[in-house]
Amino acid sequence: MIRITAKNAAKQDFMSLMRQLVRTYQAFAAFDAASYRNMDLTVSQADVIFTLGNTAGLTFKDIGAQTLITKGTLTGVIDRLENKGLVKRIDTAEDRRCTQVVLTAKGKRMFGEVFPKHVARLRTRFDRLTVAERRDAQILLVKLQTIFSS
Amino acid sequence: MIRITAKNAAKQDFMSLMRQLVRTYQAFAAFDAASYRNMDLTVSQADVIFTLGNTAGLTFKDIGAQTLITKGTLTGVIDRLENKGLVKRIDTAEDRRCTQVVLTAKGKRMFGEVFPKHVARLRTRFDRLTVAERRDAQILLVKLQTIFSS
DNA sequence: TATTGTTATACTCTATAACTATA
DNA sequence: TATAGTTATAGAGTATAACAATA
């Protein structure tokens, strides 16, 4: 027997919100990953290309900080992107411990031509929301994020 | 030079919402995964235990449908849970192609005692939101989910 | 013929830690 | 001593497809 108390109702409340966050993210991630598969990229690889786009190159440290990929893993991800001819490593003169990673011409083409198509595909979906809904969703997602940070 | 046009503003708008969804989920997932690591479970394994909790057992097909883990992968996940003594396979009489997966006594203890502590830890965070914020977040997440489904 | 779960393969990511070369 | 990136190891999930047993 389950008693319907204020406490149980509140518990139900947050559990359902939590599950909804997961379901929503999974729906987005599945939609997103389908594009990357067409580009023959994994999610991590696409993440790196996206991060490098519109920059003059970033160090492993910078990329790791932005993508949340740890350095050991990042070496492998960059290796695979380099094998695909999408990025290249460049030694830096200032601090010879650092390595810059930059997009090659092929990588720039992917970021400049293929990615925009992906973005357009995403956009058609987000357009189904009103401007107010997008604004409110953004505000609430920020609030949701803050409760888990720190 | 970047022109600030209505089109660019709208693009910026949805891209930023998209990134926020990812960041929020990542913040939650990092918080969540820390608990599972303490229980010596991976996210997938915890997902299965959670799914099996309060049921009399589910088939591979059922578990796969609820967790989005494909059958080939699920065999391995269940193997590892079985090795840890948390679940067991039971052949079904009705349809001998199906296998039921049920929690063992140890698995029930984890679901009944360890998981609630995890839930309580999550709850302290969700309590930082007001009831209205949780309700609004839920509504907007459902809307966000629907734009990616179908 | 279709479905359920298993097996096999090859790849990718994760966590951890030791290692190198620089600073 | 500390930092940036590499290497090594073991484990875990993913995708794909072929397979056996059953319906």
Structural summary, described in words:
- Two copies of one chain form a homodimer.
- Chain A has a three-stranded antiparallel β-sheet with strand order 1-3-2.
- Chain A is mainly alpha-helical and 150 residues long.
- Chain A has six helices and three strands, in the order H-H-E-H-H-E-E-H-H.
- Chain A starts with 5 loop residues before the first helix and ends with a helix.
- Chain A has helices at residues 6-38, 43-52, 60-67, 71-83, 105-126, 131-148, and strands at residues 58-59, 87-91, 99-103.
- In chain A, a hairpin with a 7-residue loop joins strand 2 and strand 3 (99-103).
- The longest helix of chain A has 33 residues, at 6-38.
- Chain A is globular.
- Chains A and B meet through helix 1, helix 5 and helix 6 of A and helix 1, helix 5 and helix 6 of B.
Q: Can you count the helices of chain A?
A: 6
Radius of gyration of chain A: 20 Å
Extended strand count of chain A: 3
Pair with the biggest interface: A-B, 43 and 44 residues
Helicity level of chain A: 55-70%
List low-pLDDT spans of chain A: none
What can be said about the biggest beta sheet of chain A? 3 strands, antiparallel
Structural class of chain A: mainly alpha
Task: Please state the overall shape of chain A, judged from the principal axes of the Cα atoms.
Answer: globular
Content of β-strand of chain A: 5-15%
What is the terminal separation of chain A in angstroms?
A: 38 Å
Order of helices and strands of chain A: HHEHHEEHH
Strand order across the largest sheet of chain A = 1-3-2
**Assembly annotation:** homodimer
Mean of all residue-level pLDDT scores of chain A:
91
